[in-house]
Amino acid sequence: MTETPGRRDVRFKRGLRAMAQHQNFEYRIGDEVSFAAGHGMQYGEVVRIITPGPDGAIEIQWEDGRRETKKTRDRAIHLVRRASGISEVDERRGQRRRSTDDEIAEVRRGDIRRRHG
Question: What is the 3-state secondary structure (H, E, C) of the chain?
Fold first, then answer.
């Protein structure tokens, strides 16, 4: 007997796929990172890449001077700022254009004005 997946199952699988795609970028030396620990947030800088790639490891020097090795796929690590100054959000958006175009917005405003008087 084969069952078709219910709506809940499909949503759950979509959520897993989104979680799996969470971190698909490489860390570089000089990147500022944050780490969500049980006792609070820690901030540091990547000082060495031990093994490159999505299954690699990086060495982080925390604000208090400690050095610690973390796996790059650890979901508690987040990129705060690249060494070049780009934030994680800007990097995720990449080279995308603005979602609205000024000319399109101007035409919409004109249509609204004509309809409403």
Answer: CCCCCCHHHHHHHHHHHHHHCCCCCCCCCCCEEEEEECCEEEEEEEEEEEECCCCCEEEEEECCCCEEEEECCCCCEEEEECCCCCEHHHHHHCCCCCCCCHHHHHHHHHHHHHHHC
How far is C-alpha 77 from the geometric centre of its chain's CA atoms? Answer: 10
Both tokens of 40, joined, read: 């609070």
Q: Rounded to an integer, what distance in angstroms lies between the CA atom of residue 89 and that of residue 5? A: 34
Per the listing, tokens 């799996």 go with 20
pLDDT digit string, tens, across residues 38-69: 889 999 999 999 998 888 999 999 999 999 99
Q: Pseudo-torsion of CA 26, 32, 38, 39, nearest 10°? A: 170
Q: Residue 15's pLDDT is what? A: 60
Rg (CA), the chain: 22
Identify the CA nearest to 46 among candidates 24, 23, 69, 22.
69
